[in-house]
Amino acid sequence: MKNLIETTTLKREWIESTLFPQCDFFRLKKGTGRELQGKSLYCLFYDPSFITRASFQRAMHLLGGQFYQTENASQSFPVTETNHIDNVVAILDSLRMDAVVIRSNEPNVMSEAASADLIPVISGGGIYDHPTQCLADLYTLQLERGSIDGSHVAIVGRVEHRNINALILGLSLFKDITVSVFSLSGAINPEIYSLGSDRGIKFREVNSMNELKNADVIYLNAPRTEAHANLLRSRGIPTININQEFMDSLDDKAIVMNPIQRSGDFSIEVVDKRLAFYRQSENALIVRMAVLMGILS
């Protein structure tokens, strides 16, 4: 693998035979901490991120490499825009960077960066896609449930988001998948919905959390901002409460996931081992270690 810019390029065989074993290796702390010694990673983030950027940086550090970053590339003269992203990649190559992680909500940025064909390009989240978040979510499902095949995943919240697009594309690689959708904002991208359906995902729309009691996974995906959440509330869209009553309605082996962590958009009113938030973020670190190893080793 030279680049990782689209979830559609992922293959189940690679995920199960290469990525997951490498993840298990790092999860069990069997590495030396020198695997990528002498290698460098540049985090070029035009849009803000906490978990994605921090986990890539920490992953590089744990592997013995070096990382560099722009806190907000849109403020970095003269590369304030992504119009000439191939030129930016050429500059990073001239500075002897070994790879770049790019985050941007502008269309086609990842493919244009990769077209420079100078250093590996990894998507840190695009306008419609987030491949490493998909891999982190799949690895979490594998660890927590023992298998991804046969899973019933309930998506709750903002469903037109890149995290959801990537998750559905990843789930579509597996068998007998059911996806229940409780939308607080938007609708699933029609192309993603169609591809998932063609690959065998059974979709169903629901209107309340009470209809999710049979789900294996509750996947919370927050609205865009607190202002957006307030707008939804002003329209009478309810606040989602993850409380003891709701957790009691789930199976003992069910889990609740949230790629954005607690942002105030969902009310988490319970402490329960089935809340997998922090295990999920740790898995994101481990997956990104494995991805960097695959690309840079």
Textual characterization of the structure:
It is a single chain. With 297 residues, the chain is an alpha/beta fold. The protein has 10 helices and 11 strands. It has helices at 12-27, 51-62, 85-94, 109-115, 131-145, 162-171, 190-198, 226-234, 244-249, 277-296; strands at 40-45, 66-70, 99-103, 121-123, 152-158, 178-185, 202-205, 217-221, 240-242, 255-257, 266-268. It starts with 11 loop residues before the first helix and ends with a helix.
List the helices and strands and how they pair.
Layout: H1 12-27, E1 40-45, H2 51-62, E2 66-70, H3 85-94, E3 99-103, H4 109-115, E4 121-123, H5 131-145, E5 152-158, H6 162-171, E6 178-185, H7 190-198, E7 202-205, E8 217-221, H8 226-234, E9 240-242, H9 244-249, E10 255-257, E11 266-268, H10 277-296
Parallel strand pairs: 1-2, 1-3, 3-4, 5-6, 5-8, 6-7, 8-10, 9-11
Helix pairs in contact: 1-10, 2-10, 3-4, 5-6, 5-10, 6-7
